[in-house]
Structure formats: structure tokens, C-alpha cells
TrEMBL record:
Its cofactor is FAD. Residues 189-338 form the RsdA/BaiN/AoA(So)-like insert domain. The keyword Glycoprotein does not apply. Residues 6-391 form the RsdA/BaiN/AoA(So)-like Rossmann fold-like domain. Keywords: FAD, Flavoprotein. The lineage of its organism: Bacteria, Pseudomonadati, Pseudomonadota, Betaproteobacteria, Nitrosomonadales. It holds the Pfam family HI0933_like_1st. This is HI0933 family protein.
Length: 393
């Protein structure tokens, strides 16, 4: 059957653009469509407008998935160095901010311009404001009904991303297509998202809103050592966003607010040498003063160290080094950076991203159950999965 296109890619975000470029370079006739009037909005707003486009330390352990091995093949075949080479070819200046995170010096729009130039060069036909109304499998391919007419293709790629930030075009579309073709979907959930609290804990967070500390945040065996920020709804900052991807509702997280200090040992030494010092002032030597005061107030600890028993000091030290708190919930998709879960990787080939039981149907990027840590890992997954699919569509 003669198709109108060799490949139709639904979703012109990071993964869809990369796949379109690669397929176009292979001489495939590609139609890349998006329902939004503006494409690649997530790239534009990413990294505070500077796009943290990859991470030098990308490894499979930087990703969550029900199958932690699934991402290995794509990440090996299209690496951060490959994307850096592309960025350099386009003369885009960048820098490492911290922990291997690479950002544009100027603007995320440069990454979008680079991808659009590459897509143009590869002969990709890109159209916006295209609504897909129906998809059907036909002999040797797929048939699509859209607001721009009916089209057919040999390979159909779903690159519609996750559910975060609905106001810039996130939809359930990819999951619905997977279900239509009998593919399992791991329950999607907001990830890399601030945590919210209630009651007395919320009141404390509100009183400390705007204050940040370096902290270790733990859930089960997973631990992240980065900044923590008190907000008017609870806690945020990199370490909290990271742990939110692992956190299970109803369970506590554990925070060490002074990771480089054994607080009990410190307090005991201080008590021995300077027993008249007041506890709030002593604690303020290792924590921001407002936080130190809040912890003392919460526990009703005040006055000179000499008046506080070692048992009391141990409890106070625990409140700093081993603070157990139960979030009520997350801020949800409104502020989440990514969606955890998605199309079950057991349904897809890790070599090609094609559905094993539905020939010619591919899923790439965030719609798949592969979710990166904070720090450029999610874009790297979009580039890598888009690249490999682009070699086979
Ligand atoms: C505020 C914010 C900041 C971020 N910063 C970073 C960062 O610095 N580094 C990093 O690695 N990751 C970052 N991320 C995550 C990253 O943006 C995503 O993981 C990545 O964009 C996923 O790429 P994708 O192509 O799979 O999906 P998207 O980039 O989300 O693209 C999906 C596309 O599909 C389109 N679409 C959706 N539904 C339909 C439909 N029904 N029909 C047609 N088109 C549809 C959308 O309009 C969109 O253009 C950030 C995310 C957010 C929200």
C-alpha cells in the first residue's frame, strides 16, 4: 500500500524532533505534528529558560523504571557526548552548572532553533495545531484522521510526553493510544515535584518560607544530598524534587538538616566547654538562625546547655540529623517537572522503541516508563530514545 508518509510522529517536543531529524536523514518522508500552536514549549521553559540539555554523568542508575535495564541500550547508542557534539556544531555556548549539568549560556531557544534547523535540513514536514481524532492499524501501517485530513504511514511514533504542566499542552494522548492497541501503561504520577504538608508542620514551613539549607533527604534506600527549600506549601528544592520521584503516599521521608555534623556529639562538647551558652545560639552555629530557633521552639528547648539533659539533647539532635516527616501529597502536575510511569517498557523493544505486539508503532521520550533524576537526564532520555527510534522507523 502506498502511504502518504513513511513516518508520522505525533508530538514535536524534544523526543519527537530528534526522531524526525534522524528518520529524515535516512531519507524517510516524515510528517511531524503537534496539537499546540507552539512546539517544544518544555524546552523553552526548561532549566529556568537556559535548558539543562544533558548531564555528563548520565547512567542507567539516573532513571526510574519498572525495568531499570530498559534505558541502557538507547543511552549507550546516543550519549551526552553525541548531543554535546551537535550543540557545538551549532555554535551554542554552554557551561556546567554543577554535578555534570550542562546549560546554555544564553537561552533554551537556541536548542529549539538548532533542532528546527536540523529538521528542516533533513526534509521533515512540520505542522502545528494538528488534532489527531482517530488512529487505526491498516495493512502495512496506520491510518490517521486529523483536522488536516486523513493520512497514512508505515511507522507511527508517539512522542506526546507526560502529564506535567497541562497549561502548555500536556495530554493523556500517548497513554490512550497505548491502551487502544492493548499495551499496558504503568500508572502515571507527578514526579520531580514539591511536597506539601498540613497542620503544625505546614505552619512551620510557612514561617520559614524562602529559607534554604543543604540537606540529605532519604526515602527507603534512596538518598539525595542537595538543597532543600521551605515554601508556603511545604518543601521544595532539588533534594526534595529528587526524592518526590521515589516517595510513596502515606510514608515518611527522613531529612538530615546538618549532614556534615553529628549534632549530638557537637552539643555534648559544647555543653562541656560552654555550659552557659543558650541552646538556640549553639544550634545557630550549624543551622540558619531562623531554622535553629524553629526547632528549639517546636521542642520547647530553651535556656543554657547546662540545664538540658543528655536525653533532651539527643532528641534535639535527632530532630536535626534524623527528621522524620510525612508529606500529605505533592503539588501535582501543575508544577511537576516530569511524569513517572507511562507505557510499560515490557511492551517495547529497548533496541528500537517499537511495540513488540504492534508492528510499526513506536513510543519515545517521557510517555515511556523511564523517568530521569533532576539535572538534564530527562532530555538525554528524550534525545536517546528519539535517536534510536529514528534509525528504525
Ligand atoms: C518546567 C520544566 C522544566 C524542565 N527542565 C528540564 C531540564 O532543564 N532538563 C531536563 O532534562 N528536563 C527538564 N524538564 C523535563 C523535560 O522537559 C521533559 O522530560 C522532556 O521535554 C520530555 O520530552 P518529550 O519529547 O517526551 O515530551 P515534551 O517535550 O513534553 O513534548 C511532547 C509534545 O507533544 C505534544 N502533544 C501532547 N499531546 C498531544 C496530542 N494529543 N496531539 C499532538 N501533540 C501532542 C505537546 O504539545 C508537546 O509539544 C523540565 C520540565 C518542566 C515542566
Amino acid at each position: 500500500m502506498a502511504h502518504s508518509f513513511d513516518v508520522i510522529i505525533i508530538g514535536a517536543g524534544a523526543a519527537g524532533l530528534m526522531c524526525a531529524i534522524e528518520a529524515g536523514k535516512r531519507g524517510r518522508k516524515v510528517w511531524l505534528i503537534d496539537h499546540s500552536a507552539k512546539i517544544a514549549e518544555k524546552i523553552r521553559i526548561s532549566g529556568g529558560g537556559r535548558c539543562n540539555f544533558t548531564n555528563l554523568h548520565t547512567q542507567p542508575q539516573s532513571y526510574l523504571s519498572q525495568n531499570p535495564h530498559f534505558c541502557k541500550s538507547a543511552l549507550r547508542r546516543y550519549t551526552p557526548q553525541d548531543f554535546i557534539a551537535l550543540v557545538c556544531r551549532h555554535g551554542i555556548a554552554f557551561h556546567e552548572k554543577k554535578l555534570g549539568q550542562l546549560f546554555c549560556n544564553d537561552s533554551a531557544k537556541q536548542i529549539i532553533a538548532m533542532l528546527l534547523a536540523e529538521a528542516h535540513e533533513a526534509g521533515v514536514k512540520l505542522e502545528t495545531s494538528v488534532q489527531v481524532r482517530a488512529i487505526e492499524a491498516v495493512a502495512g501501517g496506520y491510518w490517521l484522521k486529523t483536522n488536516q485530513g486523513k493520512q497514512t504511514c508505515a511507522s507511527l511514533v508517539i512522542a506526546t510526553g507526560g502529564l506535567s504542566i497541562p497549561k502548555i499542552g500536556a495530554t493523556h494522548f500517548g497513554y490512550e493510544v497505548a491502551k487502544q492497541f492493548g499495551l499496558r501503561v504503568i500508572q502515571p504520577r507527578a514526579a520531580l515535584v514539591p511536597l506539601i504538608f498540613d497542620g503544625a508542620l505546614l505552619a512551620r514551613c510557612q514561617a520559614l518560607s524562602g529559607l534554604s539549607v543543604e540537606a540529605d533527604v532519604r526515602f527507603g534506600k534512596q538518598i539525595f544530598a542537595e538543597g532543600l527549600l521551605f515554601t508556603h506549601r511545604g518543601l521544595s528544592g532539588p533534594s526534595i524534587l529528587q526524592i518526590s520521584s521515589y516517595w510513596e503516599e502515606g510514608e515518611p521521608i527522613v531529612i538530615n538538616l546538618a549532614p556534615s555534623t553529628d549534632v549530638l556529639a557537637f552539643l555534648k562538647v559544647q555543653k562541656q566547654h560552654q555550659p552557659r551558652l543558650h541552646i538556640n545560639n549553639v544550634l545557630a552555629e550549624i543551622l540558619p538562625r531562623r531554622l535553629a530557633q524553629s526547632i528549639c521552639d517546636e521542642r520547647n528547648d530553651s535556656g543554657p546547655l547546662a540545664n538540658l539533659s543528655d536525653v533532651r539533647l539527643a532528641a534535639l539532635a535527632s530532630a536535626v540529623n534524623d527528621w522524620h516527616i510525612k508529606p500529605v501529597s505533592t503539588e501535582g502536575y501543575r508544577t511537576a517537572e516530569v511524569t513517572r510511569g507511562g507505557v510499560d517498557t515490557r511492551e517495547l523493544s529497548s533496541q528500537t522503541m517499537e511495540a513488540s505486539k504492534q508492528s510499526g508503532l513506536f513510543f519515545i521520550g517521557e510517555v515511556v516508563d523511564v523517568t530521569g533524576h533532576l539535572g538534564g537526564f530527562n532530555f538525554q532520555w528524550a534525545w536517546s530514545s528519539g535517536y534510536v527510534a529514528g534509525q528504525y522507523v
